[in-house]
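Appendix C reproduces, verbatim, an entry submitted by the partner laboratory led by Prof. M.T., so that reviewers can inspect both the input and the predicted structure.
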Amino acid sequence: MLTVTDLDVYHGSSQTLKGFSLSLRAGEVLCLLGRNGAGKTTALKSIMGLLPSRSGSVTLDGRELTVLKPHEVPKCGIGYVPQGRRLFAELTVRDNLEIGLMARNTGREVMERALDLFPRLRERLDQVSGTLSGGEQQMLATARALCIDPAVILLDEPTEGLMPSMIATIRDVVQRLRDQGKAILLVEQRVDAVLSVADRVSFVENGKVRATVGVDDLRADPSLLSRYVGVG
């Protein structure tokens, strides 16, 4: 479904992705793990076209994405939930969701499906999004991405700063989306959260995927966690 091949990305003269490659299948959660500054967030931004690549390829079902402008990438069916949520804080919950609908001209039934995953948002449709709790804002950012009816969802640190109950809610939604056949690329620092939802884990170091393993294999041999993340 989503294939990234030998992607080279620079910030100025500094190379941040070096031959970065991964593949993501429908109905799968692939997690990127690595230390801060390893290139995980850069990889998501590059897939979305927000950071241009100097070489390499990003394809979705065979369609090349690197030639597209950033606003065209979501129209291909990729939803992006950035770190920090990036909501329109002065607009209502409903307004934020409707902006998601406009990105790909999807129908109201798509928004209803997103709200089914986050029933708390139904109670707050007319509330200004900047007054929501951190967990509710994360729900809204995810629901807004789902309003484009994506086949692929990129989630960057979705549990950062959240209470345990809210983390459980986000984890459950990720599992439900996977069961619906969505392909999910997840950047997460919480190893316990990763092991509970991911199918495979790719370890990122110095802008390159160094190893990709199944979660069951990682549980059996956690030495990669110590090597690439510093925990074990």
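The mean pLDDT is 93. Additional entries are available on request from the coordinating office.
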